[in-house]
């Protein structure tokens, strides 16, 4: 895998396509059927310094700003997404320090500074999971909290066929591949859950909580009978981790 090729392909996708096809996943949602309102992983963020990794159009930063976080910072690889986030936050009357850079690279984010670093469906785009987790640990104060959500790797291995869910990809296969979406291309790797857990441990984090299950009540309240909702009843589609810097 050539990381510069991945940066180029993926930033081009978000610069040109944005979230039109994928849809934005933003707080209070960690994924389609998991919400902060139910899980309460952040708790009270008033007066806290927060950094978002892969902020997209800035709506999760808005969520934290409205909950009275004292400082909002973010990094995103796409100039267009940073531009959208800047405009969105300005319209909401919030100020934030937004940096356009790959999360993998040194980009001037202060170290030992943040109470929370979080990422909603963006961490998995990194070309260097261990390096990114080490960077995130360096940005956090001691005992600072890192929360992220990502597509559950088991969900990436299964397809629906004749009312059954069938494995069509090896769970252990972490090789990089190209995904064509809406006339655009993204490059990614589906990492095992243990790859995330081991990289967190190596970077000096202790996992405090992990969520895999969809919220039943929430699914019922939305009366969602889509194939995706049916799948979410059978297997995890999202995972969320709350980890603390030791
Ligand atoms: C699915 S979006 C998630 C962001 C936000 N939660 C949303 O739904 O809009 C993924 C974001 O990660 C950013 N991204 C992808 N690869 C990145 C990288 N290597 N470093 C920093 N940001 C990256 C993209 O530009 C995009 O804004």
Question: Overview of this structure, please?
Answer:
This protein has 246 residues and is of the alpha/beta class. The longest helix is centred in the first third of the chain and has 14 residues, at 3-16. The radius of gyration is 17 Å and the shape is globular. The chain has one domain (3-17, 26-245): Rossmann fold. Helix 5 packs across helix 6 (193-202). It has 8 helices and 13 strands. Helices cover 30% and strands 30% of the residues. The strands form 4 sheets. The protein has a 7-stranded mixed β-sheet, with helices on both faces. A two-stranded antiparallel sheet has the order 1-2. Strands 8-9 form a two-stranded antiparallel sheet. It starts with a helix and ends with a strand. The protein has helices at residues 3-16, 36-39, 59-66, 79-91, 129-139, 193-202, 216-221, 227-234, and strands at residues 29-31, 34-35, 49-53, 71-76, 97-100, 114-120, 140-151, 158-161, 164-167, 176-181, 184-189, 205-211, 238-245. Bound molecules: S-adenosylmethionine (SAM). S-adenosylmethionine binds next to helix 1 and strand 4. The site of S-adenosylmethionine (SAM) has 24 residues, from helix 1 and strand 4. It holds the Pfam family Methyltransf_11. Keywords: Methyltransferase, Transferase.
């Amino acid at each position: 895998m050539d990381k510069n090729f991945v940066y180029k392909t993926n930033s081009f996708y978000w610069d040109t396509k944005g979230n039109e096809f994928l849809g934005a996943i933003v707080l209070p949602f960690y994924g389609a059927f998991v919400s902060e309102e139910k899980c309460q992983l952040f708790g009270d963020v008033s007066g806290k310094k927060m950094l978002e990794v892969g902020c997209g159009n800035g709506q999760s930063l808005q969520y934290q700003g409205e909950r009275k976080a004292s400082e909002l910072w973010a990094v995103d690889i796409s100039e267009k997404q940073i531009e959208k986030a800047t405009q969105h936050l300005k319209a909401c009357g919030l100020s934030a320090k937004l940096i356009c850079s790959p999360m993998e690279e040194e980009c001037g984010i202060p170290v030992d500074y943040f109470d929370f670093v979080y990422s909603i469906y963006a961490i998995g785009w990194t070309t260097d999971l261990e390096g990114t987790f080490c960077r995130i640990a360096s940005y956090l104060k001691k005992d600072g909290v890192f929360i992220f959500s990502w597509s559950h790797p088991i969900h990436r291995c299964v397809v629906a066929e004749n009312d059954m869910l069938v494995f069509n990809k090896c769970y252990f296969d972490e090789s990089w591949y190209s995904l064509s979406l809406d006339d655009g291309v993204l490059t990614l790797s589906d990492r095992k859950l243990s790859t995330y857990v081991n990289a967190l441990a190596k970077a000096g984090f202790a996992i405090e909580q992990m969520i895999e299950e969809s919220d039943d009540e929430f699914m019922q309240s939305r009366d969602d009978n889509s194939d995706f909702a049916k799948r979410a009843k059978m297997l995890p589609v999202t995972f969320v981790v709350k980890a603390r810097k030791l």
